[in-house]
Amino acid sequence: MDARFKSRDIERRSLDVDGLKRSFLEWLVYSVGKDARAATRRDWFHTVALAVRDRVVDRWMDTTRSYYQEDAKRVYYLSLEFLIGRLLTNSLSNLGIMEECRQALDRLGLSMEDVVDAEPDAALGNGGLGRLAACFLDSMASQALPGYGYGIRYEFGLFEQRFENGWQVEYPEQWLQFGNPWEFARPEVLYPVQFYGRVEEFRDSVGERAYRWVDADRVLAMAYDTPVVGYGGETINTLRLWSARATRDFNFGHFNDGAYMKAVEQKILSENLSRVLYPNDATETGKELRLKQEYFFTSASLQDILRRYLQHHSSFENLPNKAAIQLNDTHPAIGIAELMRLLVDQHALRWDDAWEITRATFAYTNHTLLPEALEAWPVRMIERVLPRHMQIIYEINAKFLNRTKARAEGDNARLSRLSLIDERGERRVRMGNLAFLGSHKVNGVSALHTELMKQTVFADFHEEFPDRINNKTNGITPRRWLKQANPALSELITTRIGEGWISDLSQIAALRDKADDVVFREEFRRAKRKNKKRLAAYIARQTGEEVLVDSIFDVQVKRMHEYKRQLLNVLHTIALYNEMRDNPTVSWVPVTKVFAGKAAPSYHMAKLIIKLINDVAKVVNHDPSVHDNLKVVLLPNYNVTAAEIIIPAADLSEQISTAGMEASGTGNMKLALNGALTIGTLDGANVEIREHVGPENIFIFGMTAEEVNDLRASGGFNPREVIASNPSLKRALDMISTGAFSPDDRNRYHPIVQALTDGGDHFLVTADFADYCRAQDAAMQLYRDQEEWTRKAILNTANMGWFSSDRTVGEYAKEIWDVHPVHPNHDGEGFR
Ligand code: GPV
Predict the structure, then answer these.
(1) Among 82, 129, 662, which is best to mutate for testing ligand 1, by the most ligand atoms less than 8 A from CB?
(2) Within a domain: residue 808?
């Protein structure tokens, strides 16, 4: 070791058991302020996290310094959501000191599990979109890519879900309550962000027309940085989250009125901006505070990006060569108007130059085609909240529409579809159109979704700009979703093929041969069984329900949404329950139906489906006539931490959305990688999963996206006819509608029955029911042959290598961002 450092400095970096143990004790006493006798589990978590953080800081600064010294092109991932979950296991695992830490804690008489469990789950996201952002951060850091995440440091993450009497009830998620040991507050990194006010026109120094935004309210955005530890610990990137702070300037006018307290209160209220995450998944609320959140973090991030750029450059023409900005859906799309404003109003660039730079810098990812999720802000709201941006949007629109062919050809219908402004009804700004126009690349998140983008929402834009749309099928990080969540399977894999798969998941293909190896199959089953036992214990703890470890763990975990069709699964559950009761002498394959997922608090239908699942569970689980062959559980408060326990234990993965509606799905990838067989529709990335794992190793059922489209277009679908011709479906629906599961309120499920019948069954649950049951039967029959089931499970794991987010991020880096790995120099001052 280098003698330049005092022993304490060395200690802070040491990665062996003794060094870790000494540093834990030092942190406990001097930073947490407790001795070992008085320390709680939470104190120990903070202690360990702070000690681990010490091992990261030097390499973090080295990484940042290397990017700076090389003036490397950076990619900035702007996202309103980062669903990162816990960080302790992740950091230890990526640093490669998991075992050392376990032993150090052991010597202190502590269990690693207890310490790990004291960490709150950072739920700064709703579902797939936010988790994708977190997987991308891991992949960028693990591949030495200069990538930054920018978002909001919500004080309250996604609500905590509890069931009261079977109904979902929401509680605030106070993840910051006891402090966050991973983050570094940066009170000096502070940017003003404005709202409201008006625009003044004036003549600039050369007599040109110019604009300034005046009389606006101001808030400050303050940075909090969290290190993002890449696999191997070589690259440590930054996730920078903004928190709203009141400005200190006072309106003296108010004081003269004696309204001092009022003035101060207004300032405090401005901090509400970063208070809470909106709990909607793929639906928009159109609330002003949401628009302000979007602008708040986007503006602060752009100011920060320009400041960093200007350290090396004195003009802006090189910005696209030094910065790539990825818009995670349209939530940060106002950034296009904001960059134009910064370049034109504040840095005096000519409009056309600014536009060229802006377009070359931004790229946009679309994550849904659902019309209710396509953001469209009322013009009147933007005019009021962001008056200068509204002008800029009009200007972008006018210049664009003037140049289109449609105008030349007098095709007004097409022109109005291309417009940034939706003129039907209340005038609105179509954020998707703005994002498309202001980006050099636009991508979908699975092959099917990208094709549908070209055919539907962006058909006109695709014709106008045929090279702009491209596909980047989503991926998941194998570090969190295999190595950390499933140590049993990970260790088994490593004994056979080494550990190269962790940073190059394509290597997992080497397991294909092992599917025919009877010893390997036995060990694979043993790993799965271990995970199922762990889940069974979790289920017992959470719900009080005992489930059979040897039953099929049939898992549907995701947000509650009609298009995801938890109802289809419930109807099959009821049909299976009836069959089991009718045929008690048959030797049934035992099934455990595992559900988990949150409903948006204002989504009444989704909340009613939650209640239905709980009601069905109550009846089925306590009916002795099914002899424990069927259990239904709905686990509360699904989050990243719960997913890490549930996913490795799954046998069957439910991916049953109405074809054409799930943009990609990423849970489907996590489950298949962990050796679950998929039962699914040809939707989103399921299509590509089928291509990779092979059609014989997946249960595909139901209508295709094209068939769905045709059936809906024909207007001829009649759910009543389908129900009448399927006795098991009819019986299940009759039971729901007559109160078999809700004797206390027989009409409770009227809205559900209504939606599936006279409501026209928009999500085609009844249309796909029969084929779904056929696929379920096939799965149950296959499960009887454990060798054959295991063979297919292994082939799923072995064939999922392509779905690593390393592959996805690599494609973005090459085809959209043009960023390259920068390997940090760790030899300099400050490194051991
Ligand atoms: I837009 N998605 C999400 O989680 N929240 C959103 O607000 C929107 C999309 C999801 C899609 O529903 C998934 O199909 C997809 O896999 C995921 O985004 C990541 O692309």
Answers:
(1) 129
(2) no
